[in-house]
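During the reporting period the student researcher (J.K.) took over the structure-prediction task from the postdoctoral fellow and processed the backlog of single-chain submissions. One of the processed entries is reproduced below for the supervisory committee.
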Amino acid sequence: MKNLLSENMLRFGTKNLSEAAQRELVLKSVMQTINEYGLHGAVRRRLTEADAPSDKNAFIKADYAGQFDDAYKLGVKNKPDTDFDNPGGPYVYQSDTSISEATTILSDLFKVLGGSDTSDAQAVINVLKKINMKNYYAILWKVRYGSSFKANNRFKSNFNCLVDYISKIGIDIPSSTGTGATMGPIGLVRNIFIDDTLYNWINSSMLPKYNTSEYVGSIPKY
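J.K. obtained the following C-alpha cells:
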C-alpha cells in the first residue's frame, strides 16, 4: 500500500512550513485517509447524526394536554406507558432515515432564513413541505435539545417547536389571535402589514397534527 500523506508528515515533520501550509496538509491528509479507506459513508453518518438521540428517545406524552393526541391517531410510533411520571410520547426515530432527513431539512431552512429577517414565506413553505410523520419528531428533538442546532442558529438557543424558531428567526408572529379590540391599536396596525401566507399554510398543513404547538392561528387584521 502506498504511503499516506499523514505517514509522511509524521516521518518528516512540518516544522519548516507556514501555519497555512500545515493546515492545508492536514486537510489533504484527512481527505486522503477518507478516500484510501472508503470512509465516506461513515464520515457522512457521523456528520448527519451529530448530537442525535438514540432510537429509544421519546417525547413525554403529557408535555401539555392533547399535544400529541392527533399524532397517535395518525399511527405515530410511541413509547409504551411504563412510567407514571413520564408517559411515553412519540419516538424521535420513526424510521431509519428520520435523523438524516431532519438534518437536511433544518440545513435547507437555515439557507432560506439566512442570518437575517426574511419575508420570503413561499421559500420557507417549500422547505416545510418536506416534513412528514417520519422526520418531524427528529426535527422537533433537534430544535428543542440539539447542541448542533443551538450552535448554528443565530440566537444560540433552543426553541419549543419549529414554528417558535421560524417566528423568532425572521417571520413576524401575529400580535394576537383575538379581535382588534383585544390586541389594541398598535397590534392591529402591525398585523395589517404581516404577510399571513406562511401562517395560513402551517395551519392547513400536517404540522399541527404532529404537534399542536405548531398551530399558530390566523392573523386578525380588524
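The committee noted the following: The beta strands are 58-60, 88-91.
J.K. will present the remaining backlog at the next meeting.
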